[in-house]
Specification:
290 residues; mainly beta; Methylamine Dehydrogenase, Chain H; 8-stranded mixed sheet; 4-stranded antiparallel sheet; 24 strands; 0% helix
Length: 290
């Protein structure tokens, strides 16, 4: 986003930064954004007999990275969504008056095809599903659906929240709105089918931004950090954290904004990451931190 994204705080909604319950050294894990929903929980009926105490969740793994290769990236691209398919990248860029949908050559960073959004729209997350590119906008409550080959606009759709990140699991679109909730949408009607609350050690993890579905997990960048959460899409539980600090050299940080942009080449098992206004895009591998 341009400047801080606004987090909508209603009556009873509290946003605080707190350490994850499964504590690790401070420099090993990101701060967890704790979101207390404003909605009153549904009443529950007490069981006839006490339930057994739940088993503690398994320890969360922290991953580090190795750079396989660095590619050129347009330093004027305010990257909001990133997708890899058929040898090219598809990219959604943001900022009012500068938002676009792009097809980009991976090797050179050259923009091969571009459709600019009208100036009143701020482009956000992007998904490629069944030959269609589906793009979110930030606060306009409107999504765009394009033909993936021609970029011709096929339809628009609306949603009641802000639009942040978008991916899919082959059956549902998965959408983030800056909160700790992921929503699973029908890719044809765009109606919400279910939602999960993302938690780490029982604490909700907010500011979920760019999303990518990777081998049965949802990778979610936590906005304004160098961390990616690896999320179980069925339960919402964080399975691991990826620390991507230090990707850009200090001299490359000049003019660059935050990490944002995750793409996965499922056929070849390649993971790509970049950021807003970054001069490079990186292919990386992950390994658990000792």
């Amino acid at each position: 986003m341009i400047g801080p994204k606004r987090i909508w705080v209603g009556i009873g909604l509290v946003l605080t930064l707190a350490p994850a319950a499964c504590a690790a050294p401070p420099d090993m894990r990101p701060a967890t954004v704790v979101v207390t929903p404003s909605a009153t929980p549904k009443a529950t009926v007490a069981p006839a007999e006490p339930s057994p105490a739940p088993e503690p969740p398994p320890a969360v793994v922290t991953y580090t990275y190795a750079i396989i290769r660095a590619y050129p990236h347009d330093p004027a691209a305010f990257t909001q969504g990133l997708v890899y398919a058929d040898g090219v990248l598809y990219e959604s860029t943001g900022l009012y008056g500068r938002s676009s949908l792009r097809r980009v050559a991976l090797e050179t960073g050259e923009v091969l095809q571009q459709r600019d959004l009208p100036a009143e729209y701020f482009g956000e997350g992007l998904a490629l599903f069944d030959g269609r590119l589906i793009q979110l906008t930030w606060q306009n409550n409107i999504g765009f659906v394009y033909d993936a080959a021609s970029f011709a606009l096929q339809q628009t759709w609306t949603y009641p929240t802000e639009g942040w990140g978008l991916t899919h699991d082959g059956t549902h679109l998965i959408m983030s709105d800056g909160s700790a909730t992921l929503r699973f949408l029908d890719p044809r009607t765009f109606q919400a089918q279910r939602e999960v609350l993302v938690t780490d050690g029982g604490r909700p993890v907010g500011w979920l931004n760019e999303l990518e579905y990777v081998n049965g997990e949802v990778f979610a960048n936590v906005w304004q950090t160098d961390w990616i959460a690896r999320i179980d899409p069925q339960t919402g539980r964080v399975l691991g954290w990826i620390d991507l600090s230090g990707l850009l050299a200090p001299e490359e940080r000049q003019g660059a904004d935050v990490l944002n942009g995750i793409a996965y080449d499922a056929q070849n098992g390649r993971l790509f990451v970049t950021g807003k206004l970054w001069p490079k895009l990186f292919e990386i591998t992950l390994t658990p931190r000792p």
